[in-house]
Amino acid sequence: MRSTFSPFCLWIPFLAGFTYANIINACPKGPQESSGPGKTIYVQTNEQQNSIVSIPIGHDGKLYGGMTTTTGGRGGDSIDGTTNKPAGPDALSSQGSVIVTDKYLFAVNAGSNTLSMFRIGETNSTHLYMVGKPAIVPGEFPVTVAASVKRDVVCVGYTGAKAGTSCASFTPEGLGQMKQAVEFDLGQTTPPKGPTNTLAQVFFTANDTRLITTVKGDPNTNKTGFVSVLLFKDSRSSTFESLDTRSSPSGTAVLFGGVNIPDTSDLFITDASFGATFLNLNLTTDKVSIQRKLVIEGQKATCWAAYSHARESVFVTDAAANRLIEISEDGSKIMSTLDLKNGDPGLIDIQISGRFVYALSPGNGTTPAAITVVDSFQGRQIQHFMLNKLGAGKRSQGMAIFE
Ligand SMILES: *[C@@H]1O[C@H](CO)[C@@H](O)[C@H](O)[C@H]1NC(C)=O
Ligand SMILES: *[C@@H]1O[C@H](CO)[C@@H](O)[C@H](O)[C@H]1NC(C)=O
Ligand SMILES: *[C@@H]1O[C@H](CO)[C@@H](O)[C@H](O)[C@H]1NC(C)=O
Ligand SMILES: *[C@@H]1O[C@H](CO)[C@@H](O)[C@H](O)[C@H]1NC(C)=O
Ligand SMILES: *[C@@H]1O[C@H](CO)[C@@H](O)[C@H](O)[C@H]1NC(C)=O
Predict the structure, then answer these.
(1) Bridge partner list, 240
(2) Residues forming a β-bridge with 105
(3) Is the CB of 218 within 6 Å of ligand 3?
(4) 277: β partners
(5) Which residue of 108, 155, 319, 379 pairs with 346 in a disulfide if CB–CB is 3.0 to 4.6 A?
(6) What's the pLDDT tens digit per position in 303-332?
(7) CA of 160 relative to ligand 5 center, distance in Å
(8) Best probe residue, ligand 4, of 265, 285, 286, 287 (max atoms within 8 Å of C-beta)
């Protein structure tokens, strides 16, 4: 990970104590004044003509300008089971629909069952260059993607009438052929009726030895959600064992977005029905068991999570509450709650770079989409960046950062 902070900016906090406002002002104001590709945040519009919005991140953590690049695929809308209407906001009901590695960006096209791959500009990370053509996913309604740089493998989770995960190798020339790794018999339709009984996220864990998939249960029909763990055959190869191991940790119902706590086999996964869970992945059995359950008072749909290296904590968002909650990395307690006053109806995907937290609100059609930027050291909002001028609206979903 590169840092675009100059040593000057990093150094001052130790002298100035709590007068952070001055430090920020002492740092260069413009987006990318130093050499190198700079930091960029990406959001998927998930519109009919799907696009990636890329916005440069300044040294002060704020967003400046931005541009859009089409993915060559179509976005999608899951169906909201309570209204039978297209679901947006939270159109894909997933975490990780767009991700970045050290060189590439991957984005799902839920409406055309493909995965797009881009090279990130070497002199300017805001610029994206499509690599090859979007790859066909052998399933329906892809909503989440994970990449392992160590194994040059990318895996996609899809949750329509044909649900499962498929993986392909990737090279500088593009994506290989996608092969199904796991099938999930969810009895879904295309587009799926959610947000319950659908895939939430795929991600790699435990030093990229395993692919994790979180699948939401449906409390109304007593359908149990689960965590699927799929082991690679050996330390180097990109082929998997033929069967995954599934666990439904007791007391969980709607497992959603997850993070792997660094240097451990512990997983922190939100549960939309009550808050968050701290889970252990047993590397002998591949079973996932609950260690701690954290009920968030007044929560409605706690679904997205991101790890903060700067604070050694996890931040979570709620699709129906305009606030940011910070939880200790062992899942034992809430460390801070930030109620936002910017008029957004709720927050979905979340990303963190250093001390800065970025949370996406797709709005609701009336209230436009925006990214809220929070300085986690100061515990306050420093920017509310409108996305409507860049073509992102209530269907937008998925966010990633290159740094
Ligand atoms: C990178 O590209 C964006 C979009 O074209 C532009 O706004 C920004 O100024 C560029 N950054 C640099 C350092 O050239
Ligand atoms: C992670 O994997 C790499 C290579 O596969 C290995 O060298 C390293 O020791 C592993 N780290 C841990 C913490 O297991
Ligand atoms: C779900 O389980 C509860 C408790 O066992 C039961 O009362 C209820 O009827 C079940 N609902 C359905 C739809 O099966
Ligand atoms: C993993 O599971 C095995 C078999 O049930 C058990 O013996 C072992 O103690 C477990 N490891 C941890 C770290 O819980
Ligand atoms: C959109 O969200 C705003 C709050 O940000 C709320 O006042 C408004 O009623 C919502 N509109 C719809 C169509 O849900």
Answers:
(1) 232
(2) 100, 118
(3) no
(4) 269, 293
(5) 319
(6) 999 999 999 999 999 999 999 999 999 999
(7) 29
(8) 285
| 222 Cβ inside 6 Å of ligand 3 | yes
Q: What residue owns the CA closest to ligand 4's atom 1?
A: 282
| Complete domains list, the chain, with CATH | 7-402 (2.130.10.10)
Ligand nearest to the CA of 34: 1
In terms of C-beta density within 10 A (0-12 exposed, 13-18 middle, 19 or more buried), how is residue 77 classed? buried
Do the strands 399-402 and 39-44 form a parallel or antiparallel pair, or are they unpaired?
A: antiparallel
Cβ(144)–Cβ(157) below 8 Å: yes
| Cβ 207 under 6 angstroms from ligand 2 | yes
Task: Indicate the residue type of 65.
Answer: G
Protein residue closest via CA to atom 10 of ligand 1: 124
The number of C-alpha atoms within 13 Å of 366 and in the hemisphere containing its C-beta is: 3
Cis amide leading into 191 (omega within 30): yes
Q: Tell me, what DSSP letter sits at residue 137?
A: P
Digit-coded pLDDT (tens) for 267-312: 999 999 999 999 999 999 999 999 999 999 999 999 999 999 999 9
Find all residues with CB under 8 Å of 24, minimum gap 6, and list them: 60, 61, 375, 382
Return the number of other C-beta atoms located less than 10 Å from residue 62's C-beta.
18
Q: Give CA 273 to chain center in angstroms.
A: 19
